[in-house]
Design brief:
Radius of gyration: 25 Å
Largest sheet: 5 strands, mixed
Number of domains: 2
Number of helices: 14
Helix content: 40-55%
Number of strands: 12
Shape: elongated
CATH architecture of the largest domain: 3-Layer(aba) Sandwich
Order of helices and strands: HEEHEEHEHEEHHEHEHEHEEHHHHH
Strand content: 15-25%
Structural class: alpha/beta
Length: 343
């Protein structure tokens, strides 16, 4: 009788464990079969090391949902090509779509038909023009329109041609279209030179000029490590623009900041764009993308680590894992909701 009781107790316990694992309706996800099992996911990016952190956080989440994530398809600085890859189905998602800056790329790549914007990965991203604080204070420069004056423009002349040298935006990023449009709209063509090329090299030269006491004029954005080196309000100042003026389809977008300044660029939200067929077939991935949020200050802090030398693939993966560990409760809530979406 003693052994029968022990055996009965064992059977009942085993039954409870099985029932708990399978759930009341026999749901495979609750039984341990993850929704991404057997599904391969292809991310695409433009090859900027400063954006890899966001991808690694997303990849970690997808892998916890059972997806097999392929190596990121790098597009060598081509934002347009990255969008096209998602639209054509050559890639499943692109994680750094700036909304509304990249609106034209989105629309021309099949936006709304072949791809969708999902979630709000990093809200509150700023862009604009800045100059060093010492020069701003000395000449009382607060608005980029003041550079129409050749004498003011010449202060920022780095190559001796008499024009202000503006460290600008890489061709193909989208921000260069705004800058080129505004140089005409604000009457700056004769006094300002838009220097383009490899932004990282150009901004490194700009920082070097600042450190040797020379006036500087540059375009940048947040989140990015530059504003941790040249701190707005301390080392540099944002310039206002005389009025809102944006190219093409974004001409009606408001660029006024809450504090009354007009930086010339709308506040952007960095979003994920994903292929529509992929989203339709993978509700768990879609829900995860909808919920994932990485605050702008966290991205900037990670970018600073990259600038300080922690820039290997292993380093960036570690940055992502450390961020997940620090935000584990929130991250787990995204996974939980994503699993529910798959049921």
């Amino acid at each position: 009788m003693k052994y029968f009781y022990q055996f009965s107790k064992y059977v009942v316990g085993l039954f409870v464990l099985v029932a708990f694992a399978i759930g009341p309706f026999g749901n495979p996800a609750l039984a341990g079969e993850l929704p991404g099992k057997g599904v391969k996911v292809q991310p695409v990016d433009q090859g900027l090391i400063e954006e890899q952190f966001q991808y690694e956080v997303l990849i970690a989440g997808l892998e916890e949902l059972g997806y097999k994530v392929k190596p990121i398809l790098h597009m060598a600085g081509e934002v347009v090509t990255s969008h096209l890859a998602v639209g054509r189905g050559d890639a499943d998602f692109y994680a750094v779509h700036w909304d509304p800056l990249h609106l034209a790329f989105y629309q021309k790549s099949g936006g709304g038909t072949t791809m969708l914007k999902v979630g709000k990965l990093t809200p509150g991203s700023l862009q604009g023009y800045l100059i060093d604080k010492k020069t701003a204070d000395k000449y009382k420069i607060t608005n980029i329109e003041q550079l129409k004056d050749p004498k003011i423009a010449k202060i920022f002349d780095a190559d001796g041609d008499g024009k202000a040298d503006l460290t600008g935006c890489n061709p193909g990023w989208g921000c260069e279209r705004v800058i080129e449009h505004q140089l005409t709209a604000y009457g700056l063509r004769d006094t300002v030179e838009h220097n383009q090329g490899t932004y990282i090299a150009l901004i490194a030269d700009t920082i070097a000029r600042y450190k040797t006491g020379h006036p500087i004029l540059y375009y940048t954005w947040t989140p990015f490590w530059v504003s941790g080196v040249l701190v707005p309000g301390k080392d540099v100042e944002w310039l206002s623009v005389p009025f809102t003026s944006l190219p093409g389809e974004r001409k009606e977008v408001d660029t006024m900041m809450p504090d009354g300044r007009n930086t010339g660029f709308a506040v952007n939200t960095v979003r994920i764009i994903a292929n529509k067929k992929f989203l339709d077939k993978n509700p768990a991935a879609r829900r995860f993308f909808e919920l994932a949020v990485i605050p702008i200050n966290d991205v900037s802090a990670e970018n600073s680590l990259i600038r300080d030398g922690e820039k290997s693939e292993r380093d960036i993966k570690r940055h992502a894992q450390e961020w997940i560990a620090k935000n584990r409760a929130e991250f787990d809530s995204w996974i939980k909701e994503a699993l529910k979406a798959a049921q």
